[in-house]
Amino acid sequence: MADKTPKESGVPFARRIDPTKESLSNEQMHFIRQVELEQWKKKTQKLRTRNVVTGLAIGALVLGIYGYTFYSVAQERIMDEIDEEAKHARMQGPKTGAN
């Protein structure tokens, strides 16, 4: 199998610095702020998209429950009407010992 360890290269790479401890020029501080702002914009765009999707999902759930409630109440009203008709039909029917 191939060796999975990265090979050492002579290319310098970014290292973390503490701007309060190291003396940086105004241009360097400005560049750091620009990079941080771009990273913040990228993160907030992802978060905004996720929040919109979550909000739409919750809204759809609420509307579904609301609609189902109206539907079931309408069904109950129809069942009440059918019960009233059945009761009325029983009252109109012939009287026997079983009634």
Overall spatial form: rod-shaped
Give unreliable regions as ranges: none
DSSP helix fraction? 55-70%
Distance from N terminus to C terminus (CA atoms, Å) equals: 89 Å
**Count, helices:** 1
Tell me, rounded to a whole number, the average pLDDT. Answer: 82
Structural class: mainly alpha
Beta-strand fraction estimate? under 5%
Major sheet, described briefly? Answer: none
Order of helices and strands: H
Integer-rounded radius of gyration: 36 Å
Annotation, overall tally of beta strands: 0
Descriptors:
mainly alpha
Explained architecture:
This protein is an all-alpha fold. The protein contains 1 helix and no strands. It has one helix at residues 26-92. The protein is rod-shaped, with a radius of gyration of 36 Å. The N and C termini lie far apart (89 Å). The mean pLDDT is 82.
Short note summarizing the structure:
This protein is mostly helical and 99 residues long. It has 1 helix and no strands.
Task: Write the SSE topology.
Layout: H1 26-92
